[in-house]
User: Fold Solute-binding protein family 5 domain-containing protein from Streptomyces hainanensis.
Amino acid sequence: ATLVFTPYADPSTRATQLLSGALDIASFPDENIGRFENNDSFSVDMVNALGTYLLFNERPGSVFADAPELRRAVAQALDPEGFTQVVTHGRGQVLTSVGSAALPCANTDAALLPGHDPEAAGELLDGVTIRFVGTVGVDQGNEYAAEVLRNAGADIELRNLDNAQWSEITSGGGDDWDVTIQADFNVVGSLPSSLLRVMGPPTEDGGRNKTGAVNEEGYDALREAMSTTDPDARCAALGRAQESFLQRVDAAPLAGLAEASVAAAGVSIRALGDYIDPATIRVVG
Assistant:
């Protein structure tokens, strides 16, 4: 059999092509999912493929440098449940770490998060200017978060950028932005991959950490986790790493964005945790 991958940027086009028989498998992150629900001609696998979380720039020149209480206030202003409803139409998963709960050793203790407290947030955010940069991939979430922060009294300067511009700015090591909603596609299905976005060597030093704050305590725990083969010790170390960044509020979990992998009758693909693996495509009929 010959496997052909055809790029369609528009999800509606992908859905139409799949319904017409021009495609055998496609994925959808939006309301096009509904076009295949209760349709026996297709199988639907739902995953939370993309994790989103507030990520703060803590470099000198940012309003969030050396300001954990201000970072906490931003996290308290946003309701992850409301964010999830707006961005995923209720199909997503509220996160309690920088990755899906399906990832091995991911934190599931919501008590470690700042919690939704708009009154407390407003006391600190009133009159604060915040430069918010976002990717158009989660533009609805960016607009929602910006409006919530404005309602809390903050002066929000929002820039919705294409992925290339957004990545260049948030990975450039500069002080020309304060906060973003990180859209994290964890293709390897490994929690350390996502944790390295919020601890360890910063991007300007060749690392993946966009915050600019190394967080030695958390990074030490992460390195311990990556160096052991004992599963219990690994989870214990990853638990300490997650508790560290959550207490510091280097980032604040929001939502796992739901994506549906839809296959026509006679074709299958496997979901491994929250990852759809193209290598598992099979002709079954």
In short: The mean pLDDT is 91. The CA atoms of residues 74 and 160 lie 19 Å apart.
